[in-house]
Specification:
The chain is an alpha+beta fold and 319 residues long. 35% of the residues lie in helices and 14% in strands. Helix 4 (64-75) crosses helix 8 (158-171), helix 6 (127-140) crosses helix 7 (147-154) and helix 9 packs across helix 10 (228-238). Belongs to the peptidase C40 family. Pfam families: NLPC_P60, SLT. Residues 185-319 form the NlpC/P60 domain.
Length: 319
């Protein structure tokens, strides 16, 4: 669902604009999403795929896979029969293929005239109008420099952001916005899916995950949580790969990714002062973003990749 909000402050924006540059030698490249994967060709109706491919170039740096992933999550590319897709609104007041609030759609159309071929006047229920409006809205929210921020503007939910990023990666034959030849391995993809499902779980030092206890009245009490390496260990356990417990041990277990390589979904990102002092680990979900359990008082969340990157490993290559 699209919400009309004020974007981050200038200082935050300046920090985000460097995220497509090298970080301690690892190339975090950005591209337009690559060609459609077989999954995309099988799942996206031809008319919608054409719309996504045509609309994305109106915003430099916007991947068509991001538009397609939003279309999938919001309305299954117009095929959903839930209230608010073909007519009316959902419980939050949004409607149409890309689930716009009417006020937000009107604001976007007022700033960006839509191309001919849609409805007259423009309508959020018209697929062409909705997809182009979504591209313009993402561009207004600086999607090329801050993918997570732009998706958060679209829907204030970490789970939503992760779902869109993961879907976008699946739709691209080149791994979404990761760069060429970086489609995720099965294990890397499974680890990302697991980590995505843990968003919002509290940080707990030494935590290996939430514990569920059934109470006498039938309710379930949830306790526990994850620390950084507990999350990555659990994510790869779900993918069938065993990792040691601490961030330092996971870094040493490798295999290390050369600094000249591009990131892949599921790569583990290690932070600290050097190879002998690794203090944090996260799991890459895009070329600029990671899921991690950052610190006490926080929850499992999506963060931009930190600047003090020590190294990258690819546990999926361990088989």
């Amino acid at each position: 669902m699209v919400l009309l909000i004020v974007m981050m402050g200038a200082a935050a924006g300046a920090a985000q604009r460097v995220l497509c540059l090298p970080v301690v030698g690892w190339f975090l490249g950005c591209n337009s999403g690559g060609s459609p994967s077989q999954t995309a060709l099988d799942d996206i109706p031809a008319d919608y795929l054409n719309l996504y491919l045509r609309a994305a170039p109106t915003c430099p740096g916007l991947s068509w896979t991001t538009l397609a992933a939003i279309g999938k999550v919001e309305s299954d590319h117009g095929r959903s029969r839930l209230p608010g897709v073909a007519s009316g609104t959902n419980s939050a007041g949004a409607g149409g293929t890309m689930q716009f609030l009417a006020t937000t759609f009107a604001e976007v159309v007022a700033r960006h005239p839509l191309p001919a071929g849609g409805a007259n006047p423009p309508s959020l229920y018209n697929a062409q109008d909705a997809v182009y409006a979504a591209a313009f809205y993402l561009c207004d929210n600086h999607v090329a420099a801050d993918l997570t921020g732009a998706l958060w503007a679209y829907n204030h939910s970490d789970a939503y952001v992760a779902q869109v990023v993961t879907q976008a990666t699946e739709y691209s034959s080149t791994g979404g916005d990761f760069g060429a030849d970086t489609a995720p391995s099965d294990a890397g993809y499974a680890a990302v899916i697991y980590a995505q499902g843990q968003l919002g779980i509290p940080y707990l030092w030494g935590g290996d995950g939430p514990q569920l206890t059934e109470l006498p009245d039938g309710r379930v009490k949830v306790t526990g949580g994850f620390d950084c390496s507990g999350l990555t260990r659990a994510a790869y356990a779900a993918a069938g790969v065993n990792l040691p417990r601490t961030a330092q041990q996971q870094y040493e277990a490798g295999p290390l990714v050369p600094a000249s390589s591009v990131l892949q979904p599921g790569d583990l990102l290690f932070f600290g002062t050097g190879p002998g002092d690794v203090t944090h680990v996260g799991i890459a979900i895009s070329s600029t973003q990671m899921i991690n359990a950052p610190h006490r008082g926080a929850v499992v969340r999506i963060d931009s990749i930190w600047r003090n990157l020590v190294g990258v490993t690819r546990p999926a290559d361990r088989g």
